[in-house]
Write a structure and sequence with these properties.
The protein is of the alpha+beta class. The chain is 31% helix and 12% strand. It is built from two helices and two strands. Strands 1-2 form a two-stranded parallel ribbon. Helix 2 links the parallel strand 1 and strand 2. Helix 1 crosses helix 2.
Length: 64
């Protein structure tokens, strides 16, 4: 049985953008670049926007 998805974007593994923004401030210098090879619903994109960092996001869409 698959548990109920608890996030607004309905992605099964979404992270809170506020948490990611906090981690970016701790570990990535201002203006730094972050690689997210599994971008999913894009919470890291939201976090880099508010923290002044940049990101390379990759997500592969598959046909069902």
């Amino acid at each position: 049985m698959v548990p109920e998805v608890r996030n607004v974007l309905r992605h099964p593994c979404s992270k809170p953008p506020q948490l990611l923004a906090h981690l970016l401030r701790l570990f990535v210098p201002a203006g730094g670049v972050v690689l997210d090879p599994f971008a999913g619903s894009g919470p890291l994109a939201m976090a880099v926007e508010v923290t002044g960092r940049r990101a390379v996001l990759v997500e592969v869409a598959t046909a069902a």
